[in-house]
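Model it.
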Amino acid sequence: MKSINPHSGQLIRTYDTQGDAEIDRQLALAEEAFDDWRKSGFADRAQLMKAAGGLLRERKQQLAELMADEMGKVVRDGIAEIEKCAGCCDYYADNAERFLSSQTIPTDAENSYIAFDPLGPVLAIMPWNFPFWQVFRFAAPALMAGNVGVLKHASNVTGCSLAIQDIFRAAGFPQHAFSSLLIESKNIERVIRHPAIKAVTLTGSTPAGRSVASIAGSELKKSVLELGGSDAYLVLDDADLDAAVDICVKSRLINAGQSCIAAKRFIVDRKLRAQFERAYVERFNHIRHGNPRDEASDIGPMARADLRAQIHQQVEQSVKQGASLLAGGKLPAGDGAYYPATVLGNVKPGMVAFDEEIFGPVAAIIEADDEEHAIALANRSPFGLGAALFTRDKARADRIARRIEAGSVFVNALVKSDVRLPFGGVKQSGYGRELSWFGIQEFVNIKTIYHAKSQEASAAHASKSQPE
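Modeled.
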């Protein structure tokens, strides 16, 4: 496996992949680690998880620079990502015991309650775009629940994968409570089917989700999928236009547009569309792309050259289909996988920019006739991850939010993940939830335990209940 700097195109490092024998050995060690780790108490787990969070904060500059080098994230954004991971560690260290405490349910039993038991080794298949956050939002709750984690990270961020493994081990976790597999994609099916693996979580593309779901389903193993998105941002006729433009620009350019929940489709009421478009293009024309280690850069390069080529092809296809190129859209000269901040106008259903996810800094502006038309356009997508809407009317916002087909709807704000709130999608954006108490309960056995009443008590109850 090769790690290549997307800014310079230079090789950073190569890594040897693990063969079948080493994969089997690593999974056997994970299973052994689970047998001991599941017996640990919440207080001991929390102490180690807090230590992991502390190490993240200590190493945040180093880790942010590693992300910049491996996948092009601007350093200040990388630092924010590491801080978010540390907060996730603290959150589950503080709340896991409460989230998984037994719940008594009154029945005709002497005692009946629900217990939450860990499942075992959980395989996480993770992408490159948030190489730390997407791992920690799985690992922190999974480990605090008593599971162990096995990570198959994207090959271009192998350095990040090994850094995460090192953080958990340096924090004092058992050596194989969290482990990184250095394997090729062709070996993923073998790992999913391995008897040591009890569940699977994937963040990635919809095609990858279908494949993983099919394999895991054939083995009757639980899976959670967070897949692609084409988030719609609805700018209604009573929106605060300046605030809406500011938020919409920021959301489209998160991580150079390489985010499942970055805004993709801007559905603007026809009364505001021309004003919105002018202001939006003006902002995009002043975006600075450059070296992700440079503080002056607004966005860095795409993570890989092939991803840039795909984005450019989608833009060109959309223009051929009738979209207007309002900003960007031209491949820059020089080294690096850079793509300019691009705006497409006059986008309609049936165009690539409307129907597909464009995973880069490309905004699609779509005109809506009215509120009903805006809702219909938002829902006219195979995806359903996030959405946002802009209006001054709170009651209107709540009414519309309930009609949007998405896992989350943000009002007058950009869509983001928050460790306190459940995160996930519907339709082809996947199923299951991460974060909050919903996330930690995805990978546990929700077990009913029932104690019958004593025979004497049962007999007395039965005699009293007989008809006279």
